[in-house]
Amino acid sequence: MRTTVRQYDHAADYEKVGRFLVRTYRTTGEHINWVQPRWEYMHYHPLIRGVDLDSIGVWEAHGEIVGVVHPEHYMGTAYFEIDPECGDLKGEMLMYAEKHVSARRDGVRRLRVWINDEDDDFQKVASERGYAKGDGCEPMSHFAVADPFPPVTVPAGFRLKSLAEDNDLRKVDRVLWRGFNHGDEPPDDGIGDRKFMQSAPNYRKDLNIVVEAPDGNFVSYCGMWYEPVHSLAYVEPVATDPEYRRMGLGRAAVLEGVRRCGAMGARVACVGTAKPFYLSLGFQQVYNRSVWQREWT
Length: 297
Fold this sequence. Notes:
It is built from eight helices and 13 strands. By secondary structure, it is α+β, with helices and mostly antiparallel strands. It starts with a strand and ends with a strand.
């Protein structure tokens, strides 16, 4: 198949890439692409401000997108979205990433790429170009959404709420700041980041769940995205205040978000990890990406 490659144009391509990811969605086999909600989350996460969107490459055939190379939150790390019919692009896409997505420091270029553990072809391509498999891993886990869904409860004095009921951005910013172990109290400029994230086209306040403590603060948070074409819920991000961990609050927030997506039609929820917390909820790992890395002058 004859393909052409060009630079990503955010205004014209953002939604096109999203539709491409929906079209090529699958959960088994060798190369597996991102789900569309992760693409959206990437673009509306505050760390996107440190990413050069011009570094993204787009491959097309007959006017349709068939491949995308891109970073996520940082330059120097590349992801590959490939149409199943265009696996022969892997070598070309890897060389593109080396030129446009790699990071340079002290005269040395570095690139980390994520490759599915079952994609022997891509691993061979990377190995032949001098990449070595590292220790980093990026599992994907799925949760079958029950119908009917069991009731979700929290300890006495706590309350499950959605941001559609109470979108106090300072409380949201505080639980995310503390929940990701950044420190005690967030800086004053975090509200802009919360507004930016909530401006995502498919962000739904009614699917973003918080647990409110008796003192009124939000102490656990679960972000949830719904992709209706494949009846898919995507969990991102999840955080619990360190002072309120091991109380079942994070569990309740995640399950309530999944329950609400299930009521909309979701039949599976996915999360990009295989941490014991998620496995204890009933998530099961379905595949894994490993990091491959190379340095050169």
